[in-house]
Amino acid sequence: MGKKKKLFSTDDINKNRREFIRSAEQDFKSKNPDWPTQLPFQSGLYHSDAPEPALEFKMAEGAALINTQGLRNAKHNAWIILGMDRPDSIRSGYGRTGSRSNAIDLVVGRMSAARGGKGPEDGTHVDNMFGADAARVYISQLTDIDANFGLAAGKIGSAKARSGIGIKADGVRIIGREGVKIVTGKCDGCKYGGIDKGEPNSLGGKIVRPAPGIELIAGNNTGTRKVWGGFRKPGFEHIPYLQPVLLGFQTRDSLRELSFLIDKLWAAVFNFMWIQGWYNSAIAVNLFPLNAIQHGIMGIWTGAMMTPWVGEMLYSMRNQKLEWEVNYLQPFGYKYICSRNVRAT
Q: Residue 228: inside a domain, yes or no?
């Protein structure tokens, strides 16, 4: 949870500017004759100007700024910068090299996390700070998007010298009233240069992987955690945070086949119990002189039944179990339950 902040405050405003700023509460207490027919200067009520520190963004020579007044220095802490790739100062990004790295940077709340959440002081000169600015949508023709936002490489790796879009805020929501898709790879049926050659990447190169991965990384952590195996499995085990997600239909089929194998094992054990029960009943009868013959007959019969009703079932089930492992639990299996392209923590 963040620290509580006052709705209206002039504490971080230069004292020369502060003298001209009055809150609605001050106007009310001073019995201003214009109250409440006229809003106080920079009170912020009803979307009027609110008191904010004046920031001076260190503009690059080749960049342009769009804001509500069309001025070079924004009146409020909301910015749209049209320029080149620049994650930090003018010495950062591909814009410093003269590369074609056109970028659009939409930022609100520059340096809002500075000074323990108090924000920047009045008159501060600022650069881009992807980790301290409140919220940003960053679009660039050529950039190192993962490095700029400090993202873990994961199994996919970090994109370098590619076009990129980054979205960062305290809370990000993607809403689709009739669905949301997250898709990787080439477009379906797109034509490039008038000839159906398949979609290239932003540099005109070939997209090598037919199905680039999707990774959902909670906590920006792709390392491993160390856990104790317990008394049955002494020692420590390193479990990776980032793991493949399960494929629903194939996992379902895997569990169905496993359920069938368990039923087959149950049947074999039941048959063994039934046959053994007959034999135990036979050898328990000692009232007749022909018990030796009876025992022999029962022994032959139970032995004959054990092979097809127990032994063969167990042997068949063992083979099916090995086949089940290969099909579902091995990466080369034709119905491997783990996704080869989507991973999550």
A: no
* Chain-centre distance for alpha carbon 308: 53
Among 153, 165, 105, 151, which residue's Cα sits nearest to residue 129? 105
Residues in CB range of 206: below 8 A, 6 or more apart: 200
Give the DSSP letter of residue 120: P
Q: What is the pLDDT of residues 19-52, one digit of tens each?
A: 656 665 566 556 655 555 666 656 666 666 667 7
Could you tell me the residue range of the domain that residue 280 belongs to? 246-344
pTM of the model: 0.75
Q: Which residue has the tokens 């509460």?
A: 25
Q: How many residues does the chain have?
A: 345
**Is residue 117 included in any domain, yes or no?**
no
pLDDT tens per residue, range 195-251: 456 778 888 888 888 888 888 888 898 888 888 877 777 788 888 888 898 888 898
Q: Is 125 contained in some domain?
A: no
- What is the amino acid identity at position 329? L
Contact yes or no for 42/49 (Cβ under 8 A)? yes
Give the total number of structural domains in the chain: 1
Instruction: Identify each DSSP E strand in 252-337 by its residue range.
Output: none
Give the tokens for residue 158. Answer: 């970090």
Residue 266, judged by CB atoms within 10 A of its CB (0-12, 13-18, 19+), counts as exposed
Where do we find the tokens 């909301």? 78
Q: Is residue 301 part of a domain?
A: yes
How many other C-beta atoms can be found within 10 angstroms of the C-beta atom of residue 109?
20
The whole-angstrom separation of Cα 10 and Cα 25 is: 13
Please report the beta strands in 19-108, taking only residues with DSSP state E, as ranges in sequence order: 56-57, 64-66, 78-84, 102-108
